[in-house]
Amino acid sequence: MLRTALVTVVTRNYLHYARVLAESCERWQPDMPLTVVLADSLPASYSLDQHLARVLLAEQLGIDDWNRFTFKYTPFELCCALKPHAMQALFAQGFERVVFIDSDLALYGPLASIEQALQTHSIALVPHLHRPLPRDGRKPLENNFLNAGTFNGGLVACCNDPQGQQFLQWWGDHLRNDCYVDVAGGVFVDQKWLNLAPGLFPSLAIVRQPGCNAGHWTLSQFPLSGDREQGYCVGDYPLECFHFSNFLPSNPLEFMHSQSRVSFQSSPALRALVRDYHARLQQHEANQYASLRCQYDQLSDGTPIKPEWREAVRRNRKELRGIEDPFDVQANPRLVAKLTQLTRRATKWRGDWRMQLPSSQQKKTLRRRLKNRWRHLMSRWD
């Protein structure tokens, strides 16, 4: 029997999600050990034996230039960028198959569709859409998936064979420097790159079972039915795992804002599923972990890192070359001043930033420039 492993990546403010995921994996796939890669430092009061048996610190993955790699990404982007590296680490431990699974998923049955796909293919991806969506102006629109990606990066599986290794190497090379959020610029973390994978890797299976990695995007394609005791179904298919993307323990209703075709009133099964998941998160100290701040979200002196600073490091700006650890203020006394200076130049660096409304100060500057331009034109007219 081939040895298969599950792996997820979290920051410490998502450890309650990882604990719920671990419980569901233990129930439905006890033969597939789950490794939690922590892209952060462990909380002081956290006990591995009590909560999660297999935890691997991300800094142990052997990524070159680790400090600059982590600095250029937000915690969310960093977790996405580490996916192929985490999967490769499990291959190095001797597993023949590895399934990456986002921490905000929960299993509701065996991952039979993934196992079946990997019997004949090296790579398995799950699409967001299985049927055309009605053009009724409601969310989600098909356009959303043109922007976010055809395949959901929350569940990616591959075999430890030449093509599986080639896929992870290719994916990891792109995520080395291009795993950020810039929808207007055509990039959405790790996920958008997966659009290219079916054309590049012949031994890739598209898993078309909608109960595999179901989420808010499948609700309007296939009705959710059943309950926890009897089991859930997505259309006529058994629910294998559900992706609670955008779920906030502090506000469970926020989960529904990503789509507008299904409500808790129209889907009792969905209401029960969400209520149960929320209760399980609360049992695992959701409020305690959600308040923790990622260690990679601030400089060594506690200064919060601005998005423009991350982008300056990602672009390897000449002003920051030679700085091995951009977090370390003590070793680089002028670090904050250099980063602050670069902030003023960053407004045109990304498509999303260019689309943002100007600040009040930028509006004042724009008015002043327009007045000066008008005076100049009028002087020439005279």
How many separate structural domains?
2
Strand order within the widest beta sheet? 3-2-1-4-7-6-10
What integer value in Å does the Rg equal?
23 Å
In CATH, the architecture of the largest domain is Alpha-Beta Complex
Q: What's the arrangement of secondary structure elements?
A:
Blueprint: E1 4-10, H1 15-28, E2 34-38, H2 48-51, E3 55-57, H3 66-71, H4 75-81, H5 83-92, E4 97-101, E5 105-107, H6 112-120, E6 123-127, H7 142-148, E7 151-159, H8 162-175, E8 181-182, E9 187-188, H9 197-200, E10 204-206, E11 224-227, E12 231-234, E13 237-238, E14 241-243, H10 268-283, H11 286-290, H12 307-314, H13 335-343, H14 351-355, H15 360-381
Give descriptors for this structure:
single chain; 14 strands; Spore Coat Polysaccharide Biosynthesis Protein SpsA, Chain A; 382 residues; 7-stranded mixed β-sheet
